[in-house]
Amino acid sequence: MEIMERTKECKEEIEKYQAERDSLRKQAEETRENYYKNKGEKYEKWKWDNMLRRERAIYTKIQYRDEKISDLEGDNISNKEKRALIKEIYNLKQVEYDRSLGCRDYIREGFSKALGKKIRIKYTKFTSFMRNVKGCRSLAGQYDIIEIKELAK
Fold it and tell me: What is the pTM of this model?
């Protein structure tokens, strides 16, 4: 059993997000340069605040792209493949099962049509109880893929 290699779609998606992140970084630098170029001698608070607001919005987008990239690098499959895998997850054979108050942990194995490989997947499904936990309402009914391993053929 070995950890699955990064798929072609995943590599393309990572490259797309990296290109977006780089263009956003250039945009942030241009915003700051434009401020200093047009500043003049007089300090104007409204110009500074406006530049900071634009810059913060850009850095939020950059952070979002970084999170997407780290998720893709961790799972080694694209978001499209991940959604398809979650849809067919119940067709796989259950190997282990563990539960606690707010979540259930599963290990399943079998042939995945979405990936075209025999895999072993370890994931967590959050129960509807999470709706009652403050700050965790959006987790109810969600899946969190922890690990995907490719089984020997």
Answer: 0.73
